[in-house]
Amino acid sequence: MSRVILLNKPYDVLCQFTSEGGRATLKDFMPLPGVYAAGRLDADSEGLVVLTDDGALQARISHPRHKLAKTYWAQVEGIPDEAALKKLRAGVDLGDFVTKPCQARVIDEPAGLWPRDPPIRYRAAIPTSWVELVLTEGKNRQVRRMTAKVGFPTLRLIRWAVGNWTLDGLAPGEWREVASRHG
To answer: pTM score, two decimals?
Structure first.
């Protein structure tokens, strides 16, 4: 039976097992050998990383052709209006590619959200808000590029879910093993 591990990757942790210049990696939080990340998160993003020892399952989780939905919570600078959300939903031309249509909506700050260390920059004159994006693709820095393109730069980014797997009950750096039915 395949092993599937859900890890809440903290901010500023590399989504790999080999350290670069003494930086924290998944190895610092994941003591189980032989599991690999199915998809990546940038060091400055937080949240759900799914790890498995099954290469086929890893491909099904991470490859865009399988269209496994990934839910992100982005704290953005400003308060997006309906026009900005429509642009996000329709697909955004980022120059090197156009994003696929996605779900996008403004949400309240997620309940039970842990503080980020270090905290995001705070500016009294500029409000922030939260946007939930559900994507079926995951290109490099895609959510950050999308929100910036429509005028609302991302300040904090958390991947909440991959398919049906979520961070529910996992503090930063914590992990749990789950049944291998994919998301």
So the answer is: 0.94
Report the 10 Å Cβ neighbour count for 33.
Answer: 8
Q: Among residues 42, 44, 53, 168, which one is catalytic?
A: 42
Give domain status of residue 89, yes or no.
yes
- d(CA 2, CA 179) in angstroms, rounded, equals 8
183 — pLDDT class (breaks 50, 70, 90): low
* Residue 183 located in a structural domain: no
Question: Do 171 and 8 meet the contact criterion of CB atoms below 8 Å apart?
Answer: yes
Task: Name which of 153, 167, 125 is nearest 6 in CA terms.
Answer: 167
> In this structure, are residues 149 and 142 in contact, taking their beta carbons and an 8 Å threshold?
no
- List CB contacts of 57: < 8 A, sequence separation 6 or more: 2, 4, 38, 180, 182
Residue 51 is part of a domain; what is its CATH number? 3.30.70.580
106 part of a folded domain: yes
Residues 151 and 73 in one domain: yes
Mark whether 168 is an active-site residue.
no
